[in-house]
Design brief:
Length: 500
């Protein structure tokens, strides 16, 4: 029987997501105006944050852009923020938006080289602990000089590449046949167990790498967007920033890498999955096949990708331009010299990044609500009214908690401006200001690994194409990040309390 018009509207709303999920989102939209009228904008604002986090947690049921976007639109309609406030937040974060639009697309055109390098690494290195350390340390080192989102884009590209190679083989299809690796219908029953183990293996590596971006990103001026902001206010150059933060960042890096070893040895928190021998053999065969297929044309393409990769690293390390503009340069160079000149071929590169860019703008709308309604102000007032000797550790804790549920760039902006105002007013000394600035930087970078919304790189990973392939949900990310959250928070907090 054909559905009625009303039934058609209901089925179309949020598409194939479960009925209970649709009902919850509708309940949110109905409850919010009531809460605003009865309990006021402060409570309504905090409720909106909780609701938005729910949409992130259910990312595998429905991409958060649609339900989160509906909540954001309602927030503007209800006056919890204004279109001007949203635009201000977006314009303050234009560097991140440009990065996502262009840098992630640029990495797409490097995927052949990345798959070539990492495939050799994965096949040659037999120890899971060693390969995990390589992923974590490489991500940390690259994030210290590049950007966590750029490094995460590399990890995602590599992960999708590996998964698609094995998925095609596990489906009994030849390597030159077009294959949809998002569907398991064609997987041969004998390969199901190995596929699940391989999923767990890749999930481990991606989580080690994602946390690695936080370990490295905290330590340098260019590692995270808020680092640059804090450095500008504090007047620190690259070397000063590194040396000031090192008493916290270096012990945390060592303990973070030790955590990798412990997790892989004990298999706690769902780590410890091994690469099945059959998968290793398939990847090994793939490497040999690809090597045999290499013509002068493909070799030239790999060389161009390698040269542009070096230019990318140098451009970002010396900060010759904003990261997004460097990404656009990468796109132009790679497509020009590798003969990719058709619009539809170029368009594929933007498929991964633009949905997340739109989601991030929705996220900035929620941040604008936080700003407009001063939702964090009570926490700020409590911390800055504490005795001077307790302020650094309490700033670290407060920044960590707030960053885990909000945007760490926004949290850093609020706190660094508050303590700069205190310095200008003569309330605190310059030495104490430096200590507090370090606490703000490390607080927004380290404990915020607790949730995907705490770190843009984590959120990007959660909403990327690799997450549903590896069954990497919000809850799974929180669970797998928990040991790192504990270690990074405790070690970072102790260093802030006793080494600054």
């Amino acid at each position: 029987m054909k559905p009625s018009l009303s039934q058609a509207f209901g089925r179309n709303f949020l598409g194939a997501s479960p009925l209970w999920y649709k009902q919850i989102i509708l309940a949110f939209l109905i409850i919010n105006p009531i809460v605003l009228v009865v309990l006021g904008p402060f409570v309504a604002g905090w409720l909106l944050i909780i609701e938005f986090i729910f949409t992130l947690a259910m990312a595998l049921k429905c991409y958060p852009l649609q339900p989160g976007g509906l909540l954001a639109i309602e927030a503007v309609v209800l006056g919890l923020t204004t279109p001007e406030g949203v635009y201000t937040e977006v314009s303050h974060n234009i560097e991140v938006i440009l990065l996502l639009m262009f840098m992630v697309a640029g990495i797409y055109f490097m995927k052949d080289m990345l798959l070539f390098i990492f495939n050799k690494l994965l096949v040659k290195v037999k120890s899971k602990i060693v390969i995990s350390l390589i992923f974590s340390f490489s991500a940390a080192l690259l994030s210290a000089f590049l950007d966590a989102l750029t490094v995460t884009a590399v990890l995602i590209s590599v992960g999708v590449g590996f998964y698609s190679v094995y998925h095609k083989a596990a489906s009994g299809q030849s390597s030159n046949k077009v294959h949809d690796h998002a569907k398991d219908d064609s997987i041969l029953p004998v390969n199901n167990e190995d596929l699940n183990e391989f999923r767990s293996f890749l999930r481990d590596l991606l989580m080690h790498g994602a946390v690695g971006t936080a370990l490295g990103g905290v330590s340098t001026l260019v590692g995270e967007p808020q680092n640059l902001l804090i450095a500008k206010v504090a007047g620190w150059d690259f070397i000063e920033f590194f040396l000031n933060v090192a008493p916290v960042s270096m012990p945390v890096l060592v303990c973070g890498l030790l955590t990798v070893v412990v997790l892989e040895k004990t298999a706690w928190f769902d780590y410890g999955a091994q690469l099945p021998d059959t998968v290793r053999d398939i990847l090994n065969n793939f490497e040999k096949e690809e090597s045999q297929k290499h013509t002068n044309k493909t070799k030239a393409q790999l060389i161009v990708q390698g040269v542009v990769a070096i230019l990318l690293v140098l451009s970002l390390a010396f900060h010759v331009a904003e990261v997004g503009l460097v990404g656009l340069m990468v796109i132009v160079l790679l497509t020009s010299f590798n003969g990719i000149i058709e619009e539809h071929r170029i368009g594929h590169a933007f498929v991964e990044s633009l949905p997340f860019t739109a989601l991030l703008v929705v996220f900035f709308t929620i941040v604008s609500v936080i700003h407009s309604q001063h939702l964090f102000q009570p926490v700020i007032d409590v911390v800055l009214n504490m005795p001077t000797d307790r302020q650094p550790i309490m700033l670290f804790i407060a920044n960590g908690l707030l960053s885990a549920i909000s945007d760490n760039v926004f949290v850093a902006t609020v706190y660094i401006n508050e303590i700069k105002a205190a310095l200008d007013a003569g309330t605190i000394t310059r030495e104490h200001f430096d200590t507090l600035a370090i606490a703000v930087n490390t607080g927004t970078n380290l404990p915020s690994v607790a949730t995907p919304n705490g770190q843009a790189a984590f959120l990007f990973l959660l909403t990327s194409a690799i997450a549903p392939l590896l069954r990497l949900s919000y809850g799974k990310m929180v669970w797998m990040a928990l040991p790192y959250t504990i270690v990074l928070s405790i070690v970072g907090g102790l260093c802030v309390a006793y080494l600054l």
